[in-house]
Amino acid sequence: MSEKKSNIVKDKSFAFALRAVKLYQFLVEQKEFVLSKQFLRSGTAVGALIREAEHAESKADFIHKMAIAQKEANETDYWIELLHQSHYLDNLQYESISKDIKALNKILASIIISSKHNYYGKK
């Protein structure tokens, strides 16, 4: 049996998507339907785009898909902040999930920068 190679960004984005689903369920119980739906959409899209990038048609396509994943992560961070400022998330909830999306965003930025560097070369 072969050992599955770990992929940090894939693993973290999937774990974040699971958190997003659970937070969405919590928010719906609190009767919040609009912001939570936007958060769920963008929060789960990050991992889906990373999965798509795994089978990119070219290095440029990979970079493009990862850049879209980063945009979704940025949007997710916005919805998290809005949920916090509108008092749907308390400070502890906010700090925990905000820390996760910011870490994921940093990983994506690093992947994009190094991929561009490798693809386009030093300029």
Can you describe what's shown?
- The chain is mainly alpha-helical and 123 residues long.
- It is built from four helices and no strands.
Question: What descriptors fit this protein?
Answer:
123 residues; single chain; mainly alpha
Number of strands: 0
State the secondary-structure class.
mainly alpha
SSE order, one letter for each helix or strand: HHHH
**Cα-atom Rg, whole angstroms?**
16 Å
Label the overall shape. elongated
**Overall mean pLDDT score?**
95
Share of residues in helices: over 70%
Q: How far apart lie the N and C ends?
A: 44 Å
User: How large a portion of the residues is in β-strands, by DSSP E?
Assistant: under 5%
Could you give a short description of this structure?
The chain has helices spanning 8-29, 34-54, 59-85, 91-120. It has 123 residues and is mostly helical. The longest helix is centred in the C-terminal third of the chain and has 30 residues, at 91-120.
Compile the SSE list and pairings.
Blueprint: H1 8-29, H2 34-54, H3 59-85, H4 91-120
Helix pairs in contact: 1-2, 1-4, 2-3, 3-4
